[in-house]
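User: New here, please read:
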Amino acid sequence: MKRIISTLLAAALCAGATLVAGASPAGAAPVAARTDPPALRVMPLGDSITVGVGSTDSNGYRLPLWNLITQQSDFTASFVGSQRDGNFEQPWHEGHSGWMIDDLRANADDWLADSEPDVILLHIGINDLDRGDDKPHAADRLAALIDQIFDDRPGATVAVMGLIPTTGGLQDLVKQFNQQAQDLVPGELQLGRHLNYVDPPALTAAEFYDRLHPDDLGYARMANSFFGALDNDVKAGWLSTDSPKATAKAH
């Protein structure tokens, strides 16, 4: 038997066949290379709701979101930003109490260059609608902020959550703002940008700390919404270790 195998092998070599160690047999499906889960730099960006005002521990939605992230293995994350609030291991964010959309625009270039996020969790606009001088054009300012983020971080993903639709006394304004925010998505996708609109939870009265801010239960529901968006974006291939890295704009 050994002589027969040796004879066949010699014949194959004489015929010009090449044997490669570890090569798959003809017709066999290639073995997929192992890839590590994406390790994402996530920037929570917004106003006092991003800070966590109204939560008992100043963690807001960030702690329950962090818990959801650590309970799965499709991706890992670290929160980034110049601000730090809360009592868990990833307290960083870029939330600023009382700020409006244009306040973020005035500082976004520096924040994005310093933190280099892969993902921006954006929730902003309620102060514009509550006490702004130009409420009808708040969504236009949001669009300008989103374009600025993509100019600075062209490979990043932006998950913009609409404003809470049951926020006291501002329901009509919020409904219009959210629809305009959602309408931004197709145009950004056509430009090759990764913009995701996240439906905000319609909180009950028992899930508000005051007329504008959620309590712990409300923040947990916001975390669920943001996590669903992150999970879907990873599975869609938007947030992959194989994707080109975003590059901050030079200053």
The chain has eight helices and seven strands. The helical segments are 2-14, 48-51, 62-70, 101-115, 126-131, 138-152, 171-190, 216-235. The two ends are 73 Å apart (CA to CA).
